[in-house]
Amino acid sequence: MLAQLIIHLCFGTALAVAIGYWIGTIQQKEAPTAVARTLYYVLVFLVMSASAILLVAIATHNFDYTYVQAYSSRQLGPPFLYAAFYSGQEGSFLLWTLLVSIVGIAVIEYSRPRGIEAETMAFYSLVLVFLSLMLVAKNPFAYLWETFAREGTTREFIEAIKGDPTRYEGRGLNPVLQNYWIMIHPPMLFTGFAAMTAPFAFAMAGLWRRQYHDWTRLAQPWIIAAVLVLGIGITLGGLWAYETLGWGGFWAWDPVENSSLVPWLLATALLHTTLVQRRTKGLIRTNFILAIAAFGAVLYSTFLTRSGVLGDTSVHSFVEPGYFVYVLLLVFLLSFLGLGFGLLLLRWRDVSTQTVRRGMFAVSSREFLLSIGSILLLLSAAIVLLGTSYPIVAELIGKPKAAIEPQFYNELHLPLVAVMLIVNGLSLIAVWSQTPPVRLAKGIGIAGGAGIVAAAAGLAFGIIPNMQAALAIVAAAIAIIINGQHILRLLRNRKPMALGAFISHVGLAILVIGIVQWAWTSTTTHLRLVEGVPSAAFDYTFTLLGKEQLEQHLRDREKYRYIVAVEKNGVERYAYPIVYYSDFNRRQAPFLEPGIISTLGHDVYLAPKALDVEERSPTVTLTKGQVQRIPIDTSATIELRAFDMSRAQMSDIPGALMLGVNVRLRTTSATVDTTLYTYFNEQAFVPKKTVIGDLVFELIRIERNQSNPERSTATIRVGTVTSPPAPPRQVLVLDVSLKPMINLVWCGFVVLLGGVLLSTIRAFRTHHSPSKNVQAHELQLKQSSVSPHSTTESHPAQSLPRR
Amino acid sequence: MKARYLIGAIALIAALSGSVYLLSQSQVQYATISEARTLGRKVQIKGRWDAAAESSYDQNHNLFRFVLIDDQGNRIPVEYQGAKPNNFELAHSVVVRGRVEGDRFHATEILTKCPSKYEGSSPIAPQTE
């Protein structure tokens, strides 16, 4: 009861905080702001308490709560037990609320000394109002007897079964999710989402206060931090998909992946356009639009993935949450878009009164090229948004429902990214205001020439697969060379902290090279590995050696990893693909994880598909009434007279059914009627030996045909006393792929995000002290405007425009 | 000055119309079995698998065969290049993506939807299904 009360209190307090900050904003007084601030800390405490209660409930297996019952179980130990916190909708909303409220403390600390606390938090706290309202609607502390009241579950019933650990048990966490990725990927993504709230609040506060320029400087560290954290979250998702889910790739253009990419692309564009505004006083409205859109994209992403609208097109989508949540999410999205764009429209003309910059950017200026780069990022966001939303749009306009193929995204992004990299290179050669065309031509000529030579060599030696890839690689080379020049110059001038942006661009270029090489040169083949029998594919020899059991303490599964020796030129390494069944899905289908052998140049990727056995002894398969000759003694016949389930429950092996078939054996000398037995433990048959004369029989399989029992079959393995029937050999069916350059892809991600990390640290350092930040700001702008060849000379066009 | 706006607008419209064209090219429409037969191009069919008919996995050719019943109750044998998908037996609906060739449907992808996906049975609470 307490927990439910706290959730309602959260909503009430969030509302009070918002009202307090709004009064403070409108009256321009400190008193209401101070009250709101105190209430804000109360709110943070309440959200933390609710989170702590949920965590304790999960840890103590309190299955009174529907949420705890649905996503955890007694079998689940730490750390995955704690992942149950955010494995379902209710808990993940709580996590999001928690993270937004904690980030809010930092926003207060940051905005208060700068005198913009009331306005910033007035908008920021509105987000918390909606999030806590969502928690009231999707309460993680609903009791089973509340959730399932209509199905007749009563509190008395739950109390009555509490003593019985087999009945008072949770459903558990999907085994697919039980690996270390779930400990880091979702929290990182949610932190990224939470971080996106801050730039939005700063932008809105700027609009409200009619200070159209200052907010870009204040929001800058927050935008970079959001790009960093969300970027890490997205990358971790890719690693997860590749390393354990066995998708074979790191990006599948799945709607859920896409909808986290769109906010990232918009925030990245915003990062570049706010840089332009700080330098030129232009793009004011553009930046407001982008800040609102980036946050809107976060909300839209939530709507897409949590409302069930994409039910048929995504592997991620959750259970349909109900109509109320659908509407609430839609209202959430539309309210903030309405609020943001509404206020912007109100200020639309007023912005012109403050704009210093008049007219257009010169084509040869850095600001123009940065804008083009941002437009390309926006185009990418638009493409991803269009493709992801298409199924909904199609439904709205009454067209037949359709899904979008990954080729749509791939084919459009290849030229887009190539142009983006070239524009990036040009923007770095260019200086602010205006660049002599000769300088642009010279800079791009050198880098482009070197890129073309490299790509031509790659094509000639067959390293680069085709012309399209070669063009992308030329673009990437241009970006690497030009950014590399800047990196070297900054290192010479001992300014390592300023390297961030350039490192990120190099990372993107490496990523592009990795992706085109990987995409066009990966090859897959199908292998059927019989235990002990070597099979060859791509210069490698694969041999299944055996299996070993993992996670033996877990009773819901017998998890095996299969040991595959992978040999090339006398060097043997081992891959461990995993196949197992779990009670989680009633052992209906296997859970699969790939085995990967990483080398510097490529990965050998073993994606298991199925298990089978190969019989070494002769077998006969019979339907009821059928007579067949015995393979090793053709003078004898065997007839299946009936399936015999009479002793099914009388098995001497616990937990297994004892199944039988009545057979009649005719040899030249005699006719014998007997029953062959096998034990069945839901997963495998364990035959019982039956010896008749010098023949040995083992009933190894019964296949029931539900709709036509006459077509049910029994399979019997036959041997003799001197050469008894041998156990079958294991067979592992897999897809083996050679994935060249996958390490270049990972390297690209790491370098890209490493650069952003460096920029984040620098941005927060620069903004650390409010009194110093004007100086620091100027210093930073000077640094970023310095061109490679003019470190000492001062350019008249480069001086800072002043209001 | 105006000319640059015009060029920008034209470039943007070109880029967007290009992507819309590609979008129309790469969308895979939902169809019924009879529509899939007449269309002949790549479509996706939503339905369920026929539990009464044979379903088998041919390991040597990596082919999974089963019979699909669409929402109108028509049947078509499906051949899928790959192993039997996870959760296939549990799936209450199946979406296959591919094209009709001859008398059978060649699927390149199978999507399975399970009753309350990723959730096992609850020993406590009655299922909402």
What does the model show?
The complex is a heterodimer of chains A (803) and B (129). Among the domains of chain A are: 173 residues, no CATH class; 180 residues, no CATH class; 100 residues; 109 residues, no CATH class. In chain A, helix 10 packs antiparallel against helix 11. With 803 residues, chain A is of the alpha+beta class. In chain A, strands 3, 4, 5, 6, 7 and 8 form a six-stranded antiparallel sheet that branches. Chain B is of the alpha+beta class. Chain B has two domains: 28 residues; 83 residues, Nucleic acid-binding proteins (OB fold (Dihydrolipoamide Acetyltransferase, E2P)), CATH 2.40.50. Chain B contains two helices and seven strands, in the order H-E-H-E-E-E-E-E-E. Chain B has a five-stranded mixed β-barrel. Chain B is elongated. The termini of chain B are far apart. At the A-B interface, helix 3, helix 15, strand 1, helix 16 and strand 10 of A face helix 1 and strand 1 of B.
CATH architecture annotation name of the largest domain in chain B: Beta Barrel
What is the first-to-last residue Cα distance of chain A?
A: 58 Å
Morphology call of chain B:
elongated
The percent range for strand residues of chain A is: 15-25%
- Main beta-sheet strand count, sense and barrel state of chain A: 6 strands, antiparallel
Which stretches of chain B of 5+ consecutive residues score pLDDT under 50? 116-129
- Looking across the biggest beta sheet of chain B, what order are the strands in? 2-4-5-7-6
Class from helix and strand fractions of chain A: alpha+beta
Q: What Rg of chain A, in angstroms, do the CA atoms define?
A: 33 Å
Let me know the average pLDDT of chain B. 76
Structural class of chain B: alpha+beta
Oligomer: heterodimer
SSE pattern of chain B, N- to C-terminal: HEHEEEEEE
Number of strands of chain B: 7
CATH class of the largest domain in chain B: Mainly Beta
Average the pLDDT over all residues of chain A and give the rounded result.
Answer: 87
Q: Find the CATH superfamily of the largest domain in chain B.
A: Nucleic acid-binding proteins
How much helix is in the residues of chain B?
Answer: 10-25%
